[in-house]
What we know:
The chain is an alpha/beta fold. The chain folds into three domains: about 5-85, Winged helix-like DNA-binding domain superfamily/Winged helix DNA-binding domain (Arc Repressor Mutant, subunit A); about 90-160 and about 265-295, D-Maltodextrin-Binding Protein, domain 2 (3-Layer(aba) Sandwich), CATH 3.40.190; about 165-255, D-Maltodextrin-Binding Protein, domain 2, CATH 3.40.190. The chain has twelve helices and 14 strands. The strands form four sheets. It has a five-stranded mixed beta sheet. α1 (about 5-15) packs across α2, α1 (about 5-15) crosses α3 and α2 (about 20-25) packs across α3. It is elongated, with a radius of gyration of 24 Å. The mean pLDDT is about 85.
Amino acid sequence: MDRFLAIEAFVRVAETRSFAEAARQMRLSRSVLTERVQQLEAFVGAPLLVRNTRSVRLSELGQTFLRDCVELVGRTNEVVNQMREVTTSPVGRLRVHALPGFVLGHLATLLQEFQARYPQIALDIVVNDAAIDPVKEGFDCALQIFPPRSEELVSRKLFPVRRVFCASPTYLRRWGVPRQPADLLRHRLGWYSGYPTRERVAFHGPTGETVSLELKPTLLSNSVHLLREYALEHAGIVCLPTLVASASVTAGDLVLVLPRHQLSSFWLSVFYPQAARSSLKLKLFLEALVKSFAGTPPWDQVLLEAKLIPAAIIE
């Protein structure tokens, strides 16, 4: 029995709660993965996992054993990666899950530069609006706003995601410019469907007052790019993250609505498994992300310099 391979198989099954998913992620047959876990259980003399037809869970011993195993796998990978870093260029596949609102228009340049520097790293980028658990889904990391419910993840903030209301000049000439938050209720509204507060939004006024409204959108969508196109078609007022709205606003195609009333901001973060924190490929990718986007992102910097948005951030 290769003890490390057996321990690695146990960790992956424990993290995914599935032999089938763990086998898929490790690119092994289920029978090979099962045999490795069974060999480890035979070696320690007790079951580490409790199986039934529907689920897999840790036994009491498995719960105690898991943390040390995660640290062992992580440390072993770290040592191997350090040796490879010294002797050769990084190689392998890096699976990344990312929000379309961030990827489209912002990530391709980074990917090109990253692969030019590390040509032997193959990138597998899945673009999806869902908040996923990278451990269970088999990703090295996930770039998203809303965190998954998992204690097995490490997170790192990249940049704030500001939100603004905006509309085309044609729409505003035709239907009027809202002066107060309540005026939005008389307009056609486009709203992102994935916010945890649903259609309730708090407006933070310039003198410190807060107005809470339950909006009545005429268009709900999980695509912020569709909402932007809806606004560009003079169809209504939409709420967009500045990373999607900035270029259209600075070009004059969209105009900020209620710019003195701020909305709360979110953070785009990188989430990745604890066991992968020592991965060389992931470490290099995180360094590239931080170098490109940490601090004030370029799409906000343009709006700040034009004094279209306030410097303060409300979380």
